[in-house]
């Protein structure tokens, strides 16, 4: 038993050492590996949350990717087809790191996609950079994913807008549309995503003349929020900003309404899961809002075409994670086509030059930090269903 355990540890350390050593684009991707020796297959490693606390996100991204690559492969890109190699990171950062190592060192992918959350994406950045393999997160919104301490991560990209934009949009909506003057902020203290949105919200909200009257925190997997909510209630806010993930958000809103808190709640794309409604209940979610990347209720022709195709394949309405998974596949395919190659370095250079690419979640142009410049949608929950209110431009 001890020998087996030691052998497993040795194998893991060997993989980590090999991956972090950095093989360079010429040896770890392109025609050398990710395209199966110059063949007709481009391997895309999908390192996503297929189980665990935020499995709903990863499952939606996976379905969006599958639908898009099915469509893309009907015609191919320069005679090549995309193959998805999936790794379930179990909604854990350590597993996301292990997945990146496996996808690069063993599966020899040309590009990595994932993860759904900022924390699990950050866990892969070093692997992507050292091995010069492009990493595209469909939904990781923390700014440091692509740019940290003023330095751009050369091989890391995203399909979604970033936290400061999302938090600012929420603050502007609260003060200008809902006429809020006193807000409470309730965050997940262990989440980079939650803290990032809260910081940008508070800056914009106070700049608009609002006052933060309460700041509270919880930790993922908490289930009883009554004492904290009681403190928030005593501060008498007319608006509560709750940037978190659906499992805790659903319980918080349900318990808040039971305590008699009637103020509107608002969060970000982390709320976007059908499971939220199951947990909170449709009635409790009335008078709540989110910033999001798209709305299935938007009547734009390209959006409705995607919604119909997704519903035909999966028998359900696509959420924003599905839309961004779908868009990520087209974002990548466009770069490969313009690069004229699946060589990681050439794909990276093509991704950097993406401009005015029309996707389901909006027209995408990358800035010099590898972040998209695109609009956000504001949605309201009514009777347990999301309703489209408006788009907000950057």
Give your account of this protein's structure.
- The protein folds into two domains: 22-161 and 302-374, Rossmann fold (3-Layer(aba) Sandwich); 163-292, Rossmann fold (3-Layer(aba) Sandwich), CATH 3.40.50.2300.
- It has 394 residues and is an alpha/beta fold.
- It has a seven-stranded mixed β-sheet with strand order 9-8-10-11-12-16-17, with helices on both faces. Strands 2-1-3-4-7 form a five-stranded parallel β-sheet, with helices on both faces. It has a three-stranded antiparallel β-sheet with strand order 13-14-15, covered by helices on one side.
- The protein has 13 helices and 17 strands.
- Strand 10, helix 9 and strand 11 form a beta-alpha-beta unit.
What attributes characterize this protein structure?
2 domains; single chain; 394 residues; Rossmann fold; 13 helices; alpha/beta; 5-stranded parallel beta sheet
Oligomeric composition of the shown chains:
single chain
Cα separation of the termini:
57 Å
Overall pLDDT confidence: 91
As a whole number of angstroms, the C-alpha radius of gyration is 21 Å
Count helical runs.
13
- CATH superfamily grouping of the largest domain: Response regulator
Total separate domains: 2
Write the layout of secondary structure elements.
Layout: H1 2-21, H2 25-28, E1 41-48, H3 55-75, E2 81-88, H4 93-105, E3 111-113, H5 118-131, E4 135-137, E5 147-148, E6 151-152, E7 156-158, H6 163-177, E8 182-188, H7 192-207, E9 211-218, H8 226-235, E10 239-241, H9 246-258, E11 265-267, H10 274-280, E12 288-292, H11 301-314, H12 320-339, H13 344-352, E13 357-359, E14 362-366, E15 372-373, E16 376-382, E17 385-392
Parallel strand pairs: 1-2, 1-3, 3-4, 4-7, 8-9, 8-10, 10-11, 11-12
Antiparallel strand pairs: 5-6, 12-16, 13-14, 14-15, 16-17
Helix pairs in contact: 1-4, 3-12, 4-5, 6-7, 9-10, 12-13
């Amino acid at each position: 038993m001890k020998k087996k355990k030691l052998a497993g540890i040795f194998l893991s350390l060997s993989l980590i050492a090999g991956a972090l050593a950095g093989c360079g684009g010429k040896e770890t991707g392109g025609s050398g590996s990710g395209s199966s020796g110059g063949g007709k297959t481009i391997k895309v490693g999908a390192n996503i949350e297929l189980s665990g606390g935020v499995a709903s996100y990863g499952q939606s991204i996976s379905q969006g990717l599958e639908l898009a690559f099915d469509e893309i492969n009907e015609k191919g890109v320069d005679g090549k087809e995309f193959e998805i190699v999936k790794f379930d990171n179990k909604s854990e950062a350590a597993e996301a790191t292990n997945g990146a190592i496996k996808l690069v060192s063993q599966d020899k992918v040309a590009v990595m996609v994932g993860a759904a959350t900022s924390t699990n994406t950050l866990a892969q950045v070093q692997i992507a950079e050292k091995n010069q393999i492009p990493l595209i997160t469909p939904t990781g919104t923390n700014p440091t994913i692509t740019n940290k301490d003023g330095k751009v991560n050369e091989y890391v990209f995203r399909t979604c807008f970033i936290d400061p934009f999302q938090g600012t949009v929420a603050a502007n909506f609260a003060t200008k549309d809902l006429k809020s003057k006193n807000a409470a902020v309730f965050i997940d203290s262990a989440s980079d995503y939650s803290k990032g949105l809260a910081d940008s919200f508070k800056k914009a909200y106070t700049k608009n003349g609002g006052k933060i009257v309460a700041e509270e925190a919880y930790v993922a997997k908490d289930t009883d929020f009554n004492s904290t909510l009681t403190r928030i209630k005593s501060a008498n806010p007319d608006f509560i900003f709750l940037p978190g993930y659906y499992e805790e958000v659903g319980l918080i809103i349900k318990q808040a309404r039971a305590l008699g808190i009637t103020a509107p709640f608002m969060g970000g794309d982390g709320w976007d899961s059908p499971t939220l409604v199951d947990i909170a209940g449709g009635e409790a979610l009335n008078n709540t809002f989110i910033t999001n990347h798209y709305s299935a209720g938007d009547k734009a022709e390209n959006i409705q075409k995607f919604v119909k195709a997704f519903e035909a394949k999966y028998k359900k309405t696509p959420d924003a994670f599905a839309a961004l998974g779908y868009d990520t596949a087209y974002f990548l395919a466009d770069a490969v086509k313009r690069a004229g190659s699946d060589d990681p370095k050439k794909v990276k250079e093509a991704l950097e030059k993406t401009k005015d690419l029309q996707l389901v979640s909006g027209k995408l142009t990358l800035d010099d930090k590898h972040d998209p410049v695109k609009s956000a949608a504001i949605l309201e929950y009514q009777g347990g269903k999301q309703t489209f209110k408006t788009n907000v431009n950057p």
